[in-house]
Amino acid sequence: MSVADSLTYMTGFGNEFETEALSGALPKGQFNPQRVNYDLYTEQFNSTAFTAPRSSNRRTWFYRIRPSAVQGEYQAIDNGLIRTAPITEAVTPPSMLRWDPIDIPTQKTDFIDGLITMAANGNANGQSGMAIHHYALNANMDNRYFCNADGEMLFVPQQGELLLFTECGKLTIKAGEIAVVPRGMKFQISLFSDTARGYLCENYGDPLHLPERGPVGANGYSNDRDFQYPVAAFEDIEGDFTLVTKFNGNLFQCPIGHSPLDVVAWTGNSAPYKYDLSRFNVINTVSYDHPDPSIFTVLTSQTATPGVANLDFVIFPPRWMVAENTFRPPWYHRNLMSEYMGLIEGVYDAKEHGFVPGGASLHNCMSPHGPEADVFEKASTVDLQPQRYENTLAFMFESRFVISPTAYALHGKERQHNYIECWQKIQKKFNPKTP
Ligand SMILES: O=C(O)Cc1cc(O)ccc1O
Ligand SMILES: [Fe+2]
């Protein structure tokens, strides 16, 4: 049995949890008593304004060995390839863009060193939009911890297995699972495999929540009970540690003489969580036509405009395809929303070549896209039978704000400069004489 299997979780999206690593550490019936058992310090942590409506309010009470204020002076450090919106270093083209996966590093690289920002939108300072990073690492975060004041972090692993030790406790993630760490929560990442690679969406806006179900009813899509939260776990260690903090678009670090993962008990609903994407209850047509991909939304961060997302996290999982008299892959389209896609495993139905696991594509606001030429030929002539799509798991970060690639994304070696050739073979077939 691996360490990953031995971890226990609490379940239920956004529940008000109570968890203690030492019996009696959690105050009963109040949040901040004069003295806390075990002489712990009380600290409130929130991801929404105090005054946010109850339905969206997120906050947690920590009972910890030392309050977070016990840390050294910050100094700016190099941002490496990490960027923050607004991206001003490059002009955003309307072009359709695609990338190969980033390399697994050969030099010692931990999670922070292994982050490359590919694109961002909105404005972190104004709490709107997001950034999309790719990560690849081969080393644990030894003696250092990370904290991101700019946004909530959605991890989409593509290979390898990670242990996220957070202030709220431990969770593991591997390909096919996702995890979300609240804005500003401190954590450390270690590897359960030799290397790991994946995607990371940094959400500057409203915290992610489960989308509405509308007429589908009380069940289906992502079900609340499948979201897993860590139980309290702490380390009581002293030493020469570093806390790296991303704040307002820049990286800083400060010395800290103890582990900041010293929360012995906590209660609240602002906490990291994980979700196994195979639990997604896929709902799709059983008659005809290809519905909009919003049916595959796992999590959403809304803007103040009803129904218009700051960020939708959408997946294209294994599923049955039964639509009759239908062109089954995505139709050709031009959308208001901007779409950044990645592939966790297998092949995506609209693009059988060039869109590979670990790679990515970007189709911005109104940029035309859809199936490559060969896929069109096949899908428009195939004898339609019920068919199970196996060995496939693509996803999309979709946003109302135009997604600006970074200079690295535009000029780095991963960019596929020939991407638009996948549509060039599409022939004119129009014949005014035969309907
Ligand atoms: O562009 C894409 O491949 C994503 C997508 C999938 C789909 O089924 C319908 C619309 C859409 O943007
Ligand atoms: Fe699309």
From TrEMBL:
Enzyme type, top EC level = oxidoreductase
Listed SUPFAM superfamilies:
RmlC-like cupins (SSF51182)
Enzyme active site: 290
E.C. no: 1.13.11.5
Q: What is this protein called?
A: Homogentisate 1,2-dioxygenase
- Kindly give the PANTHER family that the UniProt entry links to this protein: HOMOGENTISATE 1,2-DIOXYGENASE
Any one annotated GO CC term: cytoplasm
Molecular function (GO) terms listed?
homogentisate 1,2-dioxygenase activity; metal ion binding
Homogentisate 1,2-dioxygenase N-terminal domain location: 8-277
GO BP annotation list: L-phenylalanine catabolic process; L-tyrosine catabolic process
The chain positions of domain Homogentisate 1,2-dioxygenase C-terminal read 278-430
Q: Where does homogentisate bind?
A: 348, 369
Q: Which domain of life is it from?
A: Bacteria
Recorded hits in CDD domains, A to Z, give: cupin_HGO_N
